[in-house]
Amino acid sequence: MGEWIERGLAFKESPAGDRKVPGIILLMEAYGVNDHFRRLAARLAGWGYAVLVPDLYRRFSEERRVVAYTDRETAMANLSALQDRDAKEDISRCLEILRNDPRVDRERIGTVGFCMGGRLAFLSAGWFGEKIKAAVPFYGGGIGTPKGFFPGQTEVPLSLVPAIRADLLLMYGGKDDFIPEEERKAISGALSAAGRSFRMEVFPEAGHGFFCEDRTVYHKDSADRAEPMLREFLDRHLSPSSSRNG
Question: Rounded to whole angstroms, what are the CA distances from 243 to 83, 121, 206, 215?
Fold first, then answer.
């Protein structure tokens, strides 16, 4: 089942049942909260999670908030206009919605993000510390760079590594032209030096956006391998036995 919470803020999927469940904040690509993300939210809910998908473009005009995958120009213009401070505000509101929902275990909340949202999933682990127990960035561009690619990207993700308490799973395509091997090495180096718990998976034949079945860059073999990794990671780090006080 789904419902809009605070119109323009988030789409929510809640699994059936009376037990408290873990929560996930699912972070969109540059193309907006489209049918792909609604299906993905429903899939995660089917695994037993309460899922919020913030509409990070809610401050934009209605016609710009969901962009066709063929319209890269508008998507990049939206991404350029999105401010890290606004994204942080929306993710913080989603975190509080989940933490204050009696159906959700407030100590078992994670983030999963793709592309633009992958970077924000990583940032969220630093922004919110102990409140985020697991983070999964899929091909998050700009995580390992000292300066954002777009004007609104004012945060330096690796500077937040000391504040991260979440376990991380980072997914990349080996043929991703936007995220070179050097950037992946910078990320793993910073996380290793800080003693953070992480796993990095690189799919050699995949490019950027490989997990989305609605995109021409979809790589089914890699997506089919990544999905059980995602599920196992979330189950392991957001299960009741993994709860930590924070």
Answer: 32, 19, 34, 36
CA–CA dist 72, 155 (Å, integer): 24
Beta strand residue intervals within 39-94, DSSP E: 50-54
pTM of the predicted model, to two decimals?
Answer: 0.94
Cβ neighbour number for residue 138 with a 10 Å cutoff: 27
* Dihedral angle of Cα 223, 237, 92, 73, to the nearest 10 degrees: -10
Are 146 and 113 spatial neighbours (Cβ–Cβ below 8 Å)? no
Residue ranges of domains in the chain, CATH in brackets: 2-242 (3.40.50.1820)
Give the three-class secondary structure for 57: coil
How many angstroms separate the CA atoms of 156 and 158, rounded?
6
Query: What is the per-residue pLDDT across 4-20, written as a single tens digit (0 to 9) for each?
Result: 555 566 778 878 777 89
